[in-house]
Write a structure and sequence with these properties.
Chain A is built from no helices and eleven strands. Chain A is an all-beta fold. In chain A, the strands form two sheets. In chain A, strands 2, 4, 5, 6, 9, 10 and 11 form a seven-stranded mixed beta sheet that branches. Chain A is globular. In chain B, strands 2, 4, 5, 9, 10 and 11 form a six-stranded mixed beta sheet that branches. The chains are: A mainly beta, B mainly beta. Chains A and B meet through β4, β5, β9 and β10 of A and β4, β5, β9 and β10 of B.
Chain lengths: 115, 112
Protein backbone atom coordinates (compact mmCIF):
# COMPACT_ATOMS: atom_id res chain seq x y z
CA UNK A 1 0.00 0.00 0.00
CA UNK A 2 1.23 3.51 -0.81
CA UNK A 3 1.67 6.02 1.93
CA UNK A 4 3.88 8.40 3.87
CA UNK A 5 6.18 7.18 6.62
CA UNK A 6 7.54 9.51 9.27
CA UNK A 7 10.15 8.48 11.82
CA UNK A 8 10.73 8.50 14.66
CA UNK A 9 7.31 8.77 16.29
CA UNK A 10 8.82 10.45 19.38
CA UNK A 11 12.06 12.45 19.52
CA UNK A 12 13.86 14.28 22.30
CA UNK A 13 16.32 17.10 21.70
CA UNK A 14 19.03 18.34 24.01
CA UNK A 15 20.07 22.00 24.21
CA UNK A 16 22.27 23.03 21.28
CA UNK A 17 21.55 19.86 19.35
CA UNK A 18 20.33 19.51 15.76
CA UNK A 19 17.84 16.71 15.12
CA UNK A 20 16.53 15.32 11.83
CA UNK A 21 13.01 14.05 11.21
CA UNK A 22 12.57 11.56 8.40
CA UNK A 23 9.75 11.58 5.83
CA UNK A 24 9.46 9.04 3.00
CA UNK A 25 6.59 8.60 0.51
CA UNK A 26 5.89 5.94 -2.12
CA UNK A 27 2.89 7.67 -3.67
CA UNK A 28 4.96 9.10 -6.54
CA UNK A 29 3.88 12.58 -5.48
CA UNK A 30 5.93 15.52 -6.72
CA UNK A 31 5.11 17.92 -3.87
CA UNK A 32 6.09 17.43 -0.24
CA UNK A 33 5.45 19.63 2.80
CA UNK A 34 6.44 20.01 6.45
CA UNK A 35 3.99 21.45 8.99
CA UNK A 36 4.20 22.18 12.67
CA UNK A 37 1.12 21.72 14.86
CA UNK A 38 0.88 23.31 18.33
CA UNK A 39 -2.06 22.92 20.75
CA UNK A 40 -4.85 25.34 19.88
CA UNK A 41 -3.20 26.38 16.61
CA UNK A 42 -3.65 25.30 13.04
CA UNK A 43 -1.00 23.57 10.98
CA UNK A 44 1.73 26.04 10.04
CA UNK A 45 3.84 25.51 6.94
CA UNK A 46 7.60 25.22 7.52
CA UNK A 47 8.96 24.26 4.08
CA UNK A 48 7.62 22.75 0.89
CA UNK A 49 9.13 21.27 -2.25
CA UNK A 50 7.66 20.72 -5.70
CA UNK A 51 10.63 19.08 -7.38
CA UNK A 52 13.86 17.32 -6.52
CA UNK A 53 16.69 19.66 -5.47
CA UNK A 54 14.33 22.60 -5.00
CA UNK A 55 12.35 23.79 -1.97
CA UNK A 56 10.65 26.94 -0.72
CA UNK A 57 10.30 28.51 2.72
CA UNK A 58 6.89 28.44 4.31
CA UNK A 59 5.53 30.76 6.97
CA UNK A 60 7.80 29.66 9.86
CA UNK A 61 11.06 28.46 8.27
CA UNK A 62 13.47 30.09 10.75
CA UNK A 63 15.44 27.50 12.71
CA UNK A 64 14.65 24.69 10.27
CA UNK A 65 16.32 23.27 7.18
CA UNK A 66 15.33 20.68 4.57
CA UNK A 67 16.74 18.80 1.60
CA UNK A 68 15.10 17.06 -1.36
CA UNK A 69 17.75 14.85 -2.94
CA UNK A 70 15.25 12.18 -3.95
CA UNK A 71 11.59 12.43 -4.97
CA UNK A 72 10.60 10.03 -2.21
CA UNK A 73 12.37 11.74 0.67
CA UNK A 74 12.07 15.15 2.37
CA UNK A 75 13.91 15.18 5.73
CA UNK A 76 13.52 18.12 8.11
CA UNK A 77 16.34 19.26 10.42
CA UNK A 78 15.39 21.19 13.53
CA UNK A 79 18.47 23.24 14.32
CA UNK A 80 19.65 24.67 17.64
CA UNK A 81 18.49 28.06 16.33
CA UNK A 82 14.87 26.95 16.78
CA UNK A 83 14.32 28.03 20.39
CA UNK A 84 10.86 26.52 20.84
CA UNK A 85 10.93 23.21 18.97
CA UNK A 86 8.43 21.29 21.11
CA UNK A 87 5.55 20.46 18.77
CA UNK A 88 3.89 17.79 16.62
CA UNK A 89 5.53 17.73 13.17
CA UNK A 90 3.56 16.50 10.17
CA UNK A 91 4.90 15.67 6.72
CA UNK A 92 2.54 15.65 3.74
CA UNK A 93 2.65 15.06 0.00
CA UNK A 94 0.38 15.78 -2.93
CA UNK A 95 0.14 15.56 -6.69
CA UNK A 96 0.77 18.72 -8.70
CA UNK A 97 -1.75 18.47 -11.53
CA UNK A 98 -5.01 20.47 -11.60
CA UNK A 99 -3.40 23.48 -9.98
CA UNK A 100 -3.65 23.95 -6.24
CA UNK A 101 -6.60 21.64 -5.79
CA UNK A 102 -5.01 18.38 -4.82
CA UNK A 103 -5.59 16.92 -1.35
CA UNK A 104 -2.58 16.37 0.83
CA UNK A 105 -1.73 12.98 2.28
CA UNK A 106 -0.19 13.10 5.75
CA UNK A 107 2.25 10.93 7.66
CA UNK A 108 1.54 9.87 11.26
CA UNK A 109 3.68 12.67 12.67
CA UNK A 110 6.71 13.03 14.94
CA UNK A 111 6.31 14.47 18.43
CA UNK A 112 9.43 16.45 19.37
CA UNK A 113 10.21 17.47 22.94
CA UNK A 114 13.13 19.23 24.64
CA UNK A 115 15.07 17.36 27.33
CA UNK B 1 -4.44 39.41 5.59
CA UNK B 2 -4.87 35.69 5.54
CA UNK B 3 -7.11 34.05 8.08
CA UNK B 4 -9.33 31.03 8.61
CA UNK B 5 -11.89 30.88 11.43
CA UNK B 6 -13.79 27.90 12.72
CA UNK B 7 -15.40 27.15 16.10
CA UNK B 8 -13.10 25.60 18.69
CA UNK B 9 -15.47 22.94 20.00
CA UNK B 10 -18.87 21.43 19.24
CA UNK B 11 -20.92 18.70 20.88
CA UNK B 12 -23.62 16.59 19.25
CA UNK B 13 -25.56 13.40 19.90
CA UNK B 14 -25.11 10.07 18.17
CA UNK B 15 -27.44 9.80 15.16
CA UNK B 16 -27.85 13.58 14.84
CA UNK B 17 -26.66 16.01 12.15
CA UNK B 18 -23.96 18.61 12.82
CA UNK B 19 -22.72 21.52 10.70
CA UNK B 20 -19.18 22.87 11.19
CA UNK B 21 -18.67 26.33 9.74
CA UNK B 22 -15.50 27.87 8.35
CA UNK B 23 -14.87 31.42 7.15
CA UNK B 24 -11.72 32.38 5.30
CA UNK B 25 -9.88 35.41 4.05
CA UNK B 26 -6.94 34.82 1.77
CA UNK B 27 -5.47 36.28 -1.38
CA UNK B 28 -5.44 34.10 -4.47
CA UNK B 29 -7.99 31.62 -3.11
CA UNK B 30 -8.22 28.41 -5.12
CA UNK B 31 -10.18 25.82 -3.16
CA UNK B 32 -11.33 24.71 0.29
CA UNK B 33 -10.43 21.38 1.90
CA UNK B 34 -11.78 19.54 4.92
CA UNK B 35 -9.70 17.03 6.91
CA UNK B 36 -10.50 14.83 9.91
CA UNK B 37 -7.87 14.38 12.61
CA UNK B 38 -8.18 12.00 15.56
CA UNK B 39 -6.09 12.92 18.60
CA UNK B 40 -2.38 12.22 18.05
CA UNK B 41 -2.94 10.98 14.52
CA UNK B 42 -2.46 12.27 10.99
CA UNK B 43 -5.17 14.35 9.31
CA UNK B 44 -7.10 12.44 6.66
CA UNK B 45 -8.73 14.07 3.65
CA UNK B 46 -12.55 14.28 3.65
CA UNK B 47 -13.62 16.59 0.82
CA UNK B 48 -12.84 19.70 -1.15
CA UNK B 49 -14.75 22.42 -3.01
CA UNK B 50 -13.53 24.56 -5.86
CA UNK B 51 -16.83 25.90 -7.19
CA UNK B 52 -19.79 27.25 -5.23
CA UNK B 53 -22.24 24.64 -4.08
CA UNK B 54 -22.57 21.37 -2.25
CA UNK B 55 -20.37 18.29 -2.63
CA UNK B 56 -21.81 15.09 -1.13
CA UNK B 57 -19.83 12.02 -0.11
CA UNK B 58 -21.85 9.52 1.86
CA UNK B 59 -22.50 10.84 5.36
CA UNK B 60 -20.30 13.89 4.73
CA UNK B 61 -21.15 16.95 2.63
CA UNK B 62 -19.25 20.18 2.15
CA UNK B 63 -20.51 23.52 0.90
CA UNK B 64 -18.67 26.55 -0.47
CA UNK B 65 -19.64 30.15 -1.17
CA UNK B 66 -16.66 31.94 -2.73
CA UNK B 67 -18.37 35.33 -2.68
CA UNK B 68 -18.98 35.06 1.07
CA UNK B 69 -15.68 33.38 1.97
CA UNK B 70 -17.67 30.67 3.71
CA UNK B 71 -17.75 26.89 3.85
CA UNK B 72 -19.35 24.26 6.01
CA UNK B 73 -18.95 20.55 6.61
CA UNK B 74 -22.16 18.63 7.28
CA UNK B 75 -21.98 15.30 9.08
CA UNK B 76 -25.13 13.16 9.07
CA UNK B 77 -26.09 10.11 11.15
CA UNK B 78 -23.32 10.87 13.63
CA UNK B 79 -21.38 7.93 15.02
CA UNK B 80 -19.14 7.79 18.09
CA UNK B 81 -16.11 7.34 15.81
CA UNK B 82 -16.80 10.80 14.33
CA UNK B 83 -15.44 12.34 17.55
CA UNK B 84 -12.34 14.10 16.20
CA UNK B 85 -11.00 17.48 15.12
CA UNK B 86 -12.12 18.79 11.75
CA UNK B 87 -9.66 21.04 9.94
CA UNK B 88 -10.64 23.57 7.32
CA UNK B 89 -7.86 24.50 4.85
CA UNK B 90 -7.70 26.93 1.94
CA UNK B 91 -5.33 26.55 -0.97
CA UNK B 92 -3.94 29.89 -1.96
CA UNK B 93 -1.64 31.76 -4.28
CA UNK B 94 -1.13 31.55 -8.00
CA UNK B 95 -1.47 28.11 -9.49
CA UNK B 96 1.83 26.38 -8.95
CA UNK B 97 2.70 27.78 -5.54
CA UNK B 98 0.88 24.97 -3.71
CA UNK B 99 0.44 26.67 -0.38
CA UNK B 100 -2.34 25.90 2.05
CA UNK B 101 -3.55 27.78 5.13
CA UNK B 102 -5.17 25.75 7.89
CA UNK B 103 -7.71 26.71 10.53
CA UNK B 104 -7.15 25.75 14.17
CA UNK B 105 -9.63 22.87 13.88
CA UNK B 106 -13.04 22.20 15.45
CA UNK B 107 -13.04 19.51 18.13
CA UNK B 108 -16.29 17.54 17.79
CA UNK B 109 -17.54 15.39 20.67
CA UNK B 110 -20.25 12.87 19.85
CA UNK B 111 -22.24 11.79 22.88
CA UNK B 112 -24.21 8.54 23.22
Amino acid sequence: DGGITQSPKYLFRKEGQNVTLSCEQNLNHDAMYWYRQDPGQGLRLIYYSQIVNDFQKGDIAEGYSVSREKKESFPLTVTSAQKNPTAFYLCASSRLDRGNNQPQHFGDGTRLSIL
Amino acid sequence: GQNIDQPTEMTATEGAIVQINCTYQTSGFNGLFWYQQHAGEAPTFLSYNVLDGLEEKGRFSSFLSRSKGYSYLLLKELQMKDSASYLCAASRGPSGTYKYIFGTGTRLKVLA
